[in-house]
Q: What sequence folds into this?
């Protein structure tokens, strides 16, 4: 039943770790003790003893027998995802206490993680869209046709609306390649189906 369930996804890990990095930078006096899941599963007595020593109290002995190697059921490398590179970078820097490097790394809007989170309201489509959807709209006539049909059904006056992606939201274009709102409306590629050949 759960064969196709994705257990490891880097999106949440990156998001949570960025938040933790901000917190730890704001409160550097808070001590931190790292526990790695794989090491915990392989050697629970040593790792839990380290946690107990770090906390200075508690009895972890009852947990020793509960943690078994068979709990390590899935591997991140079994899941295809464009964010593994960002997640690996985040993991390495976080474990080394390099919190500022994590935040600096993700300031770049072209990072895959940031691209996946970007969204805005498309005036032509009348709905919230992502960068991936905009690329699909520009590159695939079927996708574009579906968006056009939806817009018409929603009574969006799409013929007189701009494409924000070509007006400044496409971060891969040079700024001199962006169209003005007027140009985007006048050169509406939803009307001209031969726009890709130009």
A:
């Amino acid at each position: 039943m759960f064969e196709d369930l994705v257990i490891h996804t880097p999106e949440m890990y990156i998001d949570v770790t960025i938040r933790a990095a901000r917190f730890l930078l704001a409160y550097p006096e808070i001590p931190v003790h790292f526990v790695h899941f794989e090491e915990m599963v392989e050697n629970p007595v040593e790792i839990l003893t380290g946690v107990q020593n770090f906390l200075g109290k508690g009895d972890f002995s009852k947990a020793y027998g509960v943690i078994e190697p068979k709990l390590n059921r899935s591997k991140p490398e079994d899941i295809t995802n464009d964010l593994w590179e960002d997640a690996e970078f985040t993991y390495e820097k976080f474990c080394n206490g390099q919190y500022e490097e994590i935040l600096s790394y993700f300031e770049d809007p072209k990072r895959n993680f940031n691209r996946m989170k970007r969204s805005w309201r498309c005036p032509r489509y009348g709905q919230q869209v992502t960068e991936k959807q905009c690329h699909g709209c520009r590159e695939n006539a079927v996708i574009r046709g579906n968006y056009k049909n939806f817009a018409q059904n929603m009574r969006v006056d799409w013929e007189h609306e701009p494409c924000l992606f070509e007006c400044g939201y496409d971060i891969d274009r040079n700024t001199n390649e962006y169209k003005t709102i007027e140009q985007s409306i006048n050169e509406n590629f939803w009307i001209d189906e031969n726009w890709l050949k130009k």
Q: What stands out?
A: DSSP finds ten helices and two strands in the chain. The two ends are 49 Å apart (CA to CA). The chain has two domains: 10-112, 118-197.
